[in-house]
Design brief:
Peptidase_C39-like; 7-stranded antiparallel sheet; Cathepsin B, Chain A; Peptidase C39-like domain-containing protein; transmembrane helix; membrane; 7 strands; transmembrane
Amino acid sequence: MKRFKRYRLVLIVIGLLLLTGVIFYLLKNWRQEKVEIEKSALPSPQSTFSPQLESTKPQETITATPIPAEFNLDVPFATQAPGANWDYTHEEACEEAALLMVKRYFFGESITSDSDAEEGLQEIIDWEKKNFGFFESTTAEQSAEVARKFLGLQAEVIDIPSVNDIKEIIASGKLVIVPAAGRELGNPFYRSPGPLYHMLLIKGYTQNRFITNDAGTKRGENYPYDFDTVTNANHDWNGGNVEAGAKKIIIVGK
């Protein structure tokens, strides 16, 4: 009897082991099938790398156009005192003289005589008096306004110009008017001690100098200044404190 009970216990244990194995096998297959189903629901993998086809079209190379080593525009000349009359009005007329030369150049007009130059100066002075209430010591911005509104030219003011900036502007066919602390220019032909505030017209350049039409002297046509002389003296009116004035130039074109 004891042997039978022992035999039955062994069969039960074997049966439980077999049942456990079957259950384990079924669970394993079920999990595997579930994973396969989940994978099949995902989008097909795609590469994010998009190879660039080599273009057969040659690429354009952008290079700056070199400016000429020397350049000089043929701008008519006038002094700010055409009749050598250095009275108060003409002592203050350098800005108007620079603007007159610019106007005549861009409209293809010459300056035929002292009286012609004087008439041109007075027209600009009259406009300034009417629109500004004065004509003396106009700033860079005010002179640019005269060029635009009265002379019919394009004009803009830029700050802190470099030598290369000015050379490139001239080489493009435009002109540059420079406000300056006049006594820092060191022109030996100015009446002593030289103007506190001055404007000169840059019309060209050489390897180491700007070529100007400087209305402050009758010898001012094609007058050369070293680059450093002009850039160091470049100061706007600044209410009369010229040596502390901002560095600005007026670019004028048609």
